[in-house]
Amino acid sequence: MGKDAYDEHIVVADEHLRMVLDLLGNGATPESTDPRLGLTLVQLADVHDLAARLEQARKEEVPDREPEHVHGPLDSVLGNLRAITQYRYAGWSPTLGKNRILTGVQFKPYTNAGGFTRPTRPEEGEIPRAYTAQPRSGRRVRVGILDTRLDPHTRLGGRYYTDPDALTHVQPDQERQWWEGHATFIAGIVLSLAPTADLDVRTALAPGTTPDAGWTMPLWTLAQRLADYRDSGVQVLNLSLGCSTADGQAPMVLERAIAQLTPTMAVVAAAGNHGTNELEDKDREDQGMPRRAAPLFPAALDGVLAVGAVDAQGVPASFNPIDGKDETKPAPWIDVFAPGVEVVSTYLDETGDQRVQVPIEKTKPVEYETVSFGGYANWSGTSFASAHVTGLVAAQIAGGKTPPEAVQAVRQDLPRP
């Protein structure tokens, strides 16, 4: 499914599906239903034609009500559907939304944004000591990581489960991209803080076709992967990924999926790296970065522990999303802050003979250099602050707390700066 194809789909609550299909007419076809979510993915045959027809129908029935937040034909379809139904039913409208494209916090390579997404090779003395745990030092706790594929690494040996498509199979002389080590880096951080954790690593991300394309995912696919975690035994789930929206409102499909998880597990998510002021507007647009104060989802959803980054001195990182009223402060929806600046953890190229392509900072157009990492990297971002908090929550659960109790304990230990 190409990028434009996502603009040809909407997601509708099952109990409202027949009503919405009747309103859309022959231009809509149910494509996929997930009973766990109670949602159906609907394909629209001709979005431009459908937008024009619904606009005309709304003008005839509700001439004094213009739809809000219209940024294209799909927004027009949704806006006019809501306007018509709200007029007919005293303000009520069916549950529906976009199948937005999600771009990960670190999967989208912000290569010219101050260096915080560019891993470097650490000095020998910076590599953390091996983490071990005695069998009686804490109970086992299952930690979910939905991310890029995981690289096999001796430091992680025996402590992870993966889907068949979530573990890399590196070929001799294969050229790697720097963002491919994201899940491996996160796994190392979690285990360093919760050595009795068993990692349940999965992916639904599709790699781009160029080195700087990153990984993308339709939210419908993400929601289904989140639903897969519901009965998995996972007690804390790390989501170092996210998406923004043009109107700042939460994507309905993501909100529905997260709401089904939070009663039984702790969900920890990265706040995002888009608060940097080191980019011109054109560069920010080219790199697909949200506005500096934009909320990132799922981090900004209710029930999710949103994590920002601080440096070694506890100072909030410059790339945290900002408060739109006071740019010197982090966004108010960020719950806790943890180390996320120049963190050292497990990474690609443990054998030392792979080629890892890393962007050279602030070159235009972006240029790359080949680096050998030796199994570890120094990296910055809220992704890794999120992993730190996930490890802390897992350690609290290993000590006997329930997931809600563990989240509350971490909140108290990590107050906002």
From TrEMBL:
Keyword terms = Hydrolase, Protease, Serine protease
Q: Name one GO molecular function term.
A: serine-type endopeptidase activity
Q: Which InterPro entries match?
A: Peptidase_S8/S53_dom, Peptidase_S8/S53_dom_sf, Peptidase_S8_subtilisin-like, Peptidase_S8_subtilisin-rel
Q: What are its GO biological-process terms?
A: proteolysis
Pfam family name, one = Peptidase_S8
| Record domain Peptidase S8/S53: where | 138-395
Q: Which residues cross the membrane?
A: none
Tell me where on the tree of life, at the top rank, the source sits: Bacteria
The UniProt entry annotates the active site at 147 (charge relay system), 182 (charge relay system), 383 (charge relay system)
Gene3D superfamilies, per database record: Peptidase S8/S53 domain (3.40.50.200)
Q: What is stated as this protein's family in its record?
A: Belongs to the peptidase S8 family.
What name does UniProt use for this protein? Answer: Peptidase S8/S53 domain-containing protein
**Which species does the entry assign this protein to?**
Petropleomorpha daqingensis
